[in-house]
Amino acid sequence: MNVKLFGFFFGLFLCFGSVQAQKKAPGSKSKNLANQVVQVIKKKRSLAETENPKAVAAITTFLLGPFGAHRIYLGTDAKVPIFYTLTLGGGLGILPIVDLVCILSAEDISSYYDNPRIFMWNVP
Question: What would the 3-class secondary structure string for the chain be?
Fold first, then answer.
């Protein structure tokens, strides 16, 4: 489990580096950096059958929740991690705590995948 979590964050680091390299390339048209990072992670994110996405999301929420890392793992718009970071988790950590409770109490977290809302528990 620790190796997979390390791999996730190492992949995040590599993705950010490749986006920075693309941005610095002369003549390349680039979108917003945050959108590029989220799109690269969405493309590379694959939930293996042996991986427990609920556990990974819960651990990521616990460790890096105020920065919205769990929302990047679950897939979201670029505005959500920016909002989490600027507000330190929506008012000093309230949103990650509620997100953690929602992730742990849900039987199936698939409704939280690719959710563009700031409040992920507000599912349509």
Answer: CHHHHHHHHHHHHHHHHHHHHHHHCCCCCCCCHHHHHHHHHHHHCCCCCCCCHHHHHHHHHHHHHHHCHHHHHHCCCCHHHHHHHHCHHHHHCHHHHHHHHHHHHCCCHHHHCCCCCCCCCCCC
